[in-house]
Structure formats: C-alpha cells, structure tokens
TrEMBL record:
<keyword id="KW-0812">Transmembrane</keyword>
<feature type="binding site">
    <location>
        <position position="221"/>
    </location>
    <ligand>
        <name>3'-phosphoadenylyl sulfate</name>
    </ligand>
</feature>
<dbReference type="GO" id="GO:0000139">
    <property type="term" value="C:Golgi membrane"/>
</dbReference>
<feature type="binding site">
    <location>
        <position position="229"/>
    </location>
    <ligand>
        <name>3'-phosphoadenylyl sulfate</name>
    </ligand>
</feature>
<feature type="domain" description="Sulfotransferase">
    <location>
        <begin position="132"/>
        <end position="366"/>
    </location>
</feature>
<keyword id="KW-0808">Transferase</keyword>
<dbReference type="GO" id="GO:0008467">
    <property type="term" value="F:[heparan sulfate]-glucosamine 3-sulfotransferase activity"/>
</dbReference>
<keyword id="KW-0333">Golgi apparatus</keyword>
<keyword id="KW-1133">Transmembrane helix</keyword>
<dbReference type="InterPro" id="IPR027417">
    <property type="entry name" value="P-loop_NTPase"/>
</dbReference>
<protein>
    <recommendedName>
        <fullName>Sulfotransferase</fullName>
        <ecNumber>2.8.2.-</ecNumber>
    </recommendedName>
</protein>
<dbReference type="InterPro" id="IPR037359">
    <property type="entry name" value="NST/OST"/>
</dbReference>
<feature type="binding site">
    <location>
        <begin position="140"/>
        <end position="144"/>
    </location>
    <ligand>
        <name>3'-phosphoadenylyl sulfate</name>
    </ligand>
</feature>
<comment type="similarity">
    <text>Belongs to the sulfotransferase 1 family.</text>
</comment>
<feature type="transmembrane region" description="Helical">
    <location>
        <begin position="35"/>
        <end position="56"/>
    </location>
</feature>
<keyword id="KW-0472">Membrane</keyword>
<keyword id="KW-1015">Disulfide bond</keyword>
Length: 383
C-alpha cells in the first residue's frame, strides 16, 4: 500500500516538473494546466499499474449496488468498499481479510459445486460461484468470528456482506446472488453468512432448491445470553428502548415469556431446526458452540474445517487471547503489521439484567434446549 502511494507521488511530482519545463502556456494558465495534466497522467499510470485494487483500505456501508457496476466501475467493484461486511464497524481482521481475498490462492483441496478449471488468463480472479457452504445463524452467536476465522484458510473465500438473499432478496434471482460472491478457483469453496436465515421459514426450502449439497453452519449460544446480547445491540442503536424485562415478558410475575419478541424467538433452536430438517439431513448441518468458540477457537475451527472437508490449516498458532478485548484475536498475518480483532460491535459489555428474570428465562428455555440437544446429539450445557 505504501509502495503504491510512494510510486504515485513520485510519478505525480515527475509530471509536474516535466510539464513545468516543457509546456509553452502563458504564465496564468501554466499552473492549472500542469496540475490537471499531471493528475490525468497519474490516474492512467495508476490504472495501468494496479488494475485490480484500491490504494487504501476503506471502510463504509456496503450496498449490493457495488456489485452491479460494470465497465469502468469494475475497478471500483473490486475495491474494498464494495466488499465490506454489513456488521456495524469494520475491524482490522475483516478489512485485512477482505484485502487478502482479492489475491488468488493456489490450493489443493477440491470441494463440491465446482466449475471447470479456469484458463490461465482467468487465474487472477477465478469464477464467481454459488456458495458451497453458508453460515445460516444464529444472530449474536459468533457468526462473524467463525466467518473471519475460516476465511484465513487458503481454500475458502467468502462474501464480506450479509447478502440476505434467501430472506430479503430472493426475487432478485440466483444470478444476482452469484454476483455477490468473490471469485474463486476450482479448488476453493465459496461461503457467505447471513444469520437471519436460521429463523426464516422459507430459507431451508430455498437453499435446498439452489443445491441440496449446500453445507450449513449454525453457531449456537446459550439462548438467554444470546437474547441479552441481541437486546444490548438494539439498545445501542435505539437508546429509548423499553427495558429488557418489559420486552421479554408478557407478565413477569407469572413468568409468562413473550415468545413473539424476536430476541426470544431466535433462541428456540429446536423449533427452527425442525424446519431445516425437512429439507436437509442432520449430517449436512454443523453446529458451532458459541461458548467454545471463545474459550477454544482453534478446537472449534478444527471441527468446522473437518466438516467442510478442508485440511486443518487454521490452528491454535493463528490465535491469541487479547486481554484488552477479552476475546481471542488473530495473530498478525505475514503480510500486515496489525493484529486482528473483531470490531467494537463484537464482544460488547452486556446490559445488566436482574437474576430473577434470568432464572425465569432459563426455566423457559430449558425444555427447548433439551429437545435441541437430543436433536443434534450434543449437550451444549447451557445452564
Ligand atoms: P457479544 O457482543 O454479545 O459479546 P455475531 O457475529 O453472530 O453477531 O456474534 C457476536 C458475538 O460473537 C459477540 O457477542 C461475542 O460474544 C461473540 N464472539 C465470539 N468470538 C469472538 C471474538 N473472537 N471476538 C469478538 N466476539 C466474539
């Protein structure tokens, strides 16, 4: 990045000096003409030298319209601003990964959904493919962490944005969806994550219509903690929100929980899973423990890699525990100097909820949790 800026600056200065000597303009026109010509030539120089990338990593709010650009705008399309995740703030880990994702990877793993080997001229960017694997949920479970950790793997490339194709944008069609994906080589798998899929009724059927081979990942977390995390996030955007208890209970003294409140409804994992099992076998769904993802990220990621049929490349040597953040972060990549933690919206301090309300919610969720453990054959120990 700095080399690019340095080269461009040198070129710009060289142009100014050269035109300053050569151009026969009048004194008044001279300065403006020299600047304009120099800028124009520098732009051409930049396009010729770096046809595939932006100079700086930028952050901003991504919109799918970035992906619709073509012609001259394609250069912009490949810039980071079009690939940024929709999660609130882009962190160092996401930004640097997005940049890395613009480089080709040469790996040896073969996954499903493959397309013919790209010709040599195509090696730089590969082809856009529909995802082989989708992180379908759950919101506030740790979905961003799983995506950022798995995309370190050279055989994985992922859409940075939450596409919301199967819940909000289905009418736009599969070609639109494919257009949102990063280019991949035949040996790489394509992924995306949209946590709301897990609780959207139509989604399992729609994904199975796209491909019954799609692998599904669900990051689950104690539904009570998840609900508080969800509420904390909403509160940060809407400060005059009613209290957690007011929203969670229809009648707290009678212990009647409001199941229609989204923050509560999302945690009824067993109910949502039933819907998925109508379209996908259990073996095609992998459940990541949101709790273990924090205490043992390498262990959880080993299981994710096994599930995806990938070589175990993401290991404990990639992680360290960041005391300031209180969460595992990624160690420095070879190419960049900065350690990589998730953004500020991940790992917030939760709103304090009184113990009685928490106990009531634990009682409420217990039968659903037990059913969920039975369905997936694993006890997540949410007590
Ligand atoms: P909190 O902010 O409540 O702590 P999602 O990405 O699905 O929205 O999930 C956000 C949650 O990911 C965070 O919830 C945090 O607990 C969890 N998480 C797991 N691993 C993390 C990590 N390495 N860094 C930050 N947050 C992590």
């Amino acid at each position: 990045r700095y080399l690019k800026i340095f080269l461009l600056s040198c070129f710009l200065m060289a142009c100014v000096l050269l035109f300053g000597r050569l151009l026969p303009f009048s004194h008044r026109l001279r300065g403006t003409s020299i600047c304009l010509l120099s800028l124009f030539l520098s732009y051409l120089f930049y396009c010729a030298l770096f046809p595939d990338g932006a100079i700086m990593q930028t952050s901003g709010d991504p919109t799918p319209s970035c992906h619709r650009a073509d012609g001259a705008k394609r250069r912009l399309q490949k810039s980071l601003s079009c690939l940024l995740p929709s999660d609130a703030r882009l962190s160092a880990v996401e930004a640097s990964r997005l940049k890395a994702d613009q480089r080709p990877h040469f790996a040896h793993h073969t996954a499903g959904n493959g397309t013919p080997s790209p010709p040599m001229s195509n090696l730089k960017f590969g082809n856009k493919k529909l995802p082989n694997a989708i992180i379908v949920g759950v919101k506030k479970g740790g979905t961003r962490a799983v995506l950022e950790f798995i995309r370190i793997h050279p055989d994985v490339r992922a859409a940075g944005t939450e596409t919301h194709f199967f819940d909000r944008n289905y009418d736009r069609g599969l070609d639109w969806y494919r257009g949102l994906m990063p280019r991949t080589l035949e040996s790489q798998i394509t992924m995306e994550k949209t946590p709301s899929y897990f609780v959207t009724k139509e989604t399992p059927h729609r994904i199975s219509t796209m491909s019954q081979d799609t692998k599904l990942i669900v990051v689950v977390r104690d539904p009570v903690t998840r609900a508080i995390s969800d509420y904390t996030q909403t509160l940060s955007k809407t400060p005059d929100l009613p209290s957690f208890q007011d929203l969670a209970f229809r009648n707290q003294s009678l212990g009647i929980v409001d199941m229609s409140w989204n923050a509560i409804r999302i945690g009824l994992y067993a109910l949502h899973l039933e819907n998925w099992l109508r379209y996908f076998p259990l073996a095609q769904i992998h459940f990541v423990s949101g709790e273990r993802l924090i205490t043992d990220p390498a262990g959880e990621m080993a299981r994710v890699q096994d599930f995806l049929g990938l070589k175990r490349i993401v290991t404990d040597k990639h992680f360290y525990f960041n005391r300031t953040k209180g969460f595992p972060c990624l160690k420095k990549p070879e190419s960049s100097g900065s350690p990589r933690c998730l953004g500020k919206s991940k790992g917030r301090t939760h709103v304090q909820i009184d113990r009685d309300a928490i106990e009531q919610l634990r009682d409420f969720y217990r039968p659903y949790n037990v059913k969920f453990y039975e369905m997936v054959g694993h006890d997540f120990k949410w007590e």
